[in-house]
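Notes from hallway chat w/ T.B., transcribed later so I don't forget. T.B. wanted the structure written out for a chain they're using in a teaching module, and asked if we could keep both sequence and structure tokens in one place. Agreed to drop them here.
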Amino acid sequence: MSVLFIFKVVLVLLLLFILFNLGRALFIMVKGEQTVPMSQYLGRRVLFSVLVVVLLLVALGSGVISPNARPY
């Protein structure tokens, strides 16, 4: 397996985990449960979002991925 494929799989898994945490926070907000604070799930979402951005910047800097020269 290439490094690019592994990077893409990790990125997709992180994005799915972000959506899962956002859904859990929504469920807690709507249902009104107070066993686990909603901010825990929202904080995880923000943490993993920052991790995704950092991973993208590191991959761009190291040459694993390359941006489009012209987006049109």
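Follow-up for T.B.: DSSP finds two helices and no strands in the chain. Might be a good example for the class.
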